Amino acid sequence: MTGQPVLTARDVSIEYQVEPPVKAVQEVSLTLHRGEILGLAGESGCGKTTLAYGLNRLLKAPALQTSGEIVFHDRGGADIDVVGLSGESLRRYRWDKVSMVFQGSMNSLNPVMSVRAQLDDVFRTHRPGMGRAERVRRSAELLGLVGVDPSRLTAFPHELSGGMRQRVMIAMALALDPQVMIMDEPTTALDVVVQRGIIREIMRLRERLGFAVIFITHDLPLLIEISDRIAVMLEGRIVELGDAERIYRRPEHDYTKRLLASFPSLRGDRGGFVRRREEQEGASA
Amino acid sequence: MNFYVRRVSFYLVTLWAAISLNFLLPRLLPGDPAAIMLGKLRRANGGRPLSEETIRTITSILGAEKGTSLWDQYLAYWGRLLHGDLGVSSTRYPASVAELIGAALPWTVILVGVATILSFVLGIAAGAWVGWRRGTWVDHLVPATTFLQSVPYFWLALVLVAVLAVQLGLLPIFGGYDVFEFPAGPEWSWAFVGSAVVHAILPAATIVISSVGGWLLGMRNMMVQTMSEDYVVTAEAKGLTPRRIRSRYAGRNAAIPSLAGFGIALGFVVAGSIVTEQVFSYPGIGKLMIQAVQGLDYALMQGVFLVITLTVLAANFLMELVYGFIDPRVRHRG
Q1: The complex's ipTM?
Q2: Could you read off the pLDDT of B19-57 as tens digits, one per residue?
Q3: DSSP annotation of A112
Q4: What domains can be seen in chain A, in order of their start residue?
Q5: Ordered alpha helix ranges (H), chain A
Q6: A102 CB near a chain B CB, below 8 Å?
Q7: Which of A90, A112, A172 comes nearest B326 by C-beta?
Q8: Cα distance between residue A187 and residue A55, in whole Å
């Protein structure tokens, strides 16, 4: 299944039209293949989230996509021009083809609606043919899939822990069996143990369901561990794009080297994360 | 379920405290309200001595029963209250206070209640709409309605009367119904209801015009704030219909603070329209209270205060139940 592109972005530029204008994303080109995990790394403010919003056409004024094209290659073989979508067609496209898990996991759920009602919303809107019992069954199944007890369907968001809320969000993102899932720092607000549990869950689900993931984070070591390919962003541009292994072993751009060097090793010395070949060989000998 | 039991018991305690205060206040007043009241009643009765029953009622309500302890007075007060006996009015002798309040209350509750609800619904609906479409021409609605709110409402009432009732003769000038057509007082007939509705238009319009701006402004601001919440962006990414996002995600959350304000506004339905009722000579509680205060009619005053306290409590209680229903987060607290 891999190898075929599912989402292609070409020369995408996004600008915040304030005075003076901020060029948040500049001529970014990306290809996401079926079933792959593409990591998007970079420091805060480099345009990662803006790009993610742009890919799903969620930008609001003053942000504006000034150029570029985004094409979604559907399972059936049809190509969808995402930039050309608007109104009803855009609404139908969202979540059904590309779903998102947001950065602010704590606030992504509506505080006054139960988990069930919020899952139900998705089915009601996108699958009007589904019956009530079928919707409830599917919602319970989704919660089970992400490791949340289906009895929590009736719970309200404030009754769930941060990790559970993020799992519910992932369940919701899986609801319509999308082909792409954009995850914008899905685990940033969580402690490392919960973070690991959720990442494992995402990896397991991806293997089972075969969706492609754009995983956005500033945590480069995490990306190296989970992604197939990594794109490094700096000041709105992708400065390096390559296999995770290659980025880790032989980073080419100065910024990627700096990024890798800023993570401490287990022993705590700065820059220790960048392993040198000779050092490794020395250790294994 | 526990939430409701706790709330009910809280309100019962508050109710008890309010009624006890109502009992204590006249007894703490300097002078002797009961003696003044009895004197007034005697004069109203044409100088003839009052019945033993009337004297007992007045003293048990307003205090100064010679030779009885405060505790016995308190018990007697509760006894009378539970029988609905609030004493006799001196300004409208020999009508009883309960009768007078019973006759005035429906007028106020219907007029001000309907006007308050109308104003709230209009303000919230318009506010949600203006907030949803912020940055377009509808933003001009905000300063326009705020201006209307800043006009003193008694003055607004006078202008409305002068223009619509006196100059153009479209609507009646005063009263709750046509007193010439129905000299015997209120009756249950369509003609009477029609007359009452026509008479209610101007006072209701005054209340709505002067209060709708506040609801609109509050709702509009909350709407703008809520629309930038993450869960609204999530709803959008979920591909929900704009109508659903507006009502279930943005509107519902934005209306929660206004709803608390609405509870307070409902509590003041009975007490808050004194000036409006006075301008229109509307036969409601407000007019009754002015009469009582002007004529130093202590029994009537106390009765009116009691009714006002009860409505404030009842409105708060009602709103809290509704609030718990709308916002699941408060159901589990305190």
Answers
A1: 0.83
A2: 888 888 877 777 777 777 788 788 877 777 778 777 777
A3: T
A4: 5-97+178-284 (3.40.50.300), 108-177 (no CATH)
A5: 48-55, 87-93, 115-126, 132-145, 162-174, 192-209, 220-226, 244-249, 254-261, 277-284
A6: yes
A7: A112
A8: 21
Chain A: residue whose CA lies nearest to B135: A61
Q: Least CB-CB distance to A94: which of B237, B256, B327?
A: B237
Band (B16; pLDDT cuts 50, 70, 90): very high
Instruction: Report the alpha-carbon distance of residue A113 to residue B240 in Å, rounded.
Output: 15
- From chain B, the residues in CB contact with A126 under 8 A are 239
Nearest CA-CA partner of A120 in A105, A100, A101, A134 = A134
Other Cβ atoms less than 10 A from the Cβ of A218: the count is 17
The answer to whether B238 contacts A94, with C-beta atoms less than 8 Å apart, is yes
A249: its two tokens: 């072993």
Give, for A8, the enclosing helix (H) or strand (E).
strand A5-16
Q: What is the pLDDT of residues B216-235, one digit of tens each?
A: 999 999 999 999 888 998 99
Residue A63 to residue A216: CA distance in whole angstroms: 19
Average pLDDT along chain B: 84
Of B233, B239, B253, the CB nearest to A112: B253
**What does the block give as tokens for A110?**
């509506």
AA letter at A46: C
Inter-CA distances, B153 with A16, B120, B206, B210, Å: 46, 17, 7, 6
Q: Can you give chain B as a three-state secondary structure string?
A: CHHHHHHHHHHHHHHHHHHHHHHHHHHHCCCCHHHHHHHHHHHHCCCCCCCHHHHHHHHHHHCCCCCCCHHHHHHHHHHHHHCCCCCECCCCCCCEHHHHHHHHHHHHHHHHHHHHHHHHHHHHHHHHHHHHCCCCHHHHHHHHHHHHHHCCHHHHHHHHHHHHHHHCCCCCCCCCCCCCCCCCCCCCCHHHHHHHHHHHHHHHHHHHHHHHHHHHHHHHHHHHHHHCCHHHHHHHHCCCCHHHHHHHHHHHHHHHHHHHHHHHHHHCCCCCCHHHHHHCCCCCHHHHHHHHHHCCCHHHHHHHHHHHHHHHHHHHHHHHHHHHHHCHHHHHCC
pLDDT digits (tens, 9 = 90+) for B154-197: 888 889 888 988 888 888 887 788 777 777 777 778 888 888 88
**CB of A100 less than 8 A from some CB of B:** yes
Distance CA A41, CA A44 (A): 10
Which residue type, as a one-letter code, is found at position A243?
Answer: D
Spatial contact of A141 and A133, defined as CB atoms under 8 Å apart: no
Q: B244: which chain A residues are within 8 Å (Cβ-Cβ)?
A: 121, 125
Domains in chain B, CATH or no CATH each = 2-82 (no CATH), 97-323 (1.10.3720.10)
State pTM to two decimals: 0.79
